[in-house]
Amino acid sequence: MAEGTSGGRGKCRACNSEKQDDINKQLALRVSLRKLERRYGISHQALLDHRRNHLSPALIALTRAKRLEGSARTVAEQLEDLLEEVRSMYKAAKKSRNFQQALQALGKLLSALELQAKISGELDDRPQVTINIQQSQEWVQLRAVILEVLEPYPEVERRLANRLRVLEKGGA
To answer: What pLDDT score was predicted for residue 2?
Structure first.
């Protein structure tokens, strides 16, 4: 172990480091202890003890939440920058009457717009499932049971059967 890489009794090397905030952030984000050991010159065990004993769960959660929030915003910003770049390429290709490049740029623009729509929720390309209950075996059986139970009441049975036929044909 390198000299001065562990703290000793009551002297946490990470807490006493000028880079404590950076160390805490990296530990909260679960960066490899070996990598941090090389980067900051603090032993693996001292970093582990610091994370275990001196980082609050709230700090860890907040650091991770900020990173997720920042990365999501960064992706959207990068995509917007990309869209602007592709638009300018399209305009330049169109202006120079290079139609092949213009079409390629339009294809890239379309792909980027599609991605932006997916990220924003404007485009949902998940499969849509439609179930026709009228053709299900369960509905056919239930309909038969209802009509059978209503047999002693011919007027109600007739009205219900007529109403069900209207509904089955798509009426209201």
So the answer is: 44
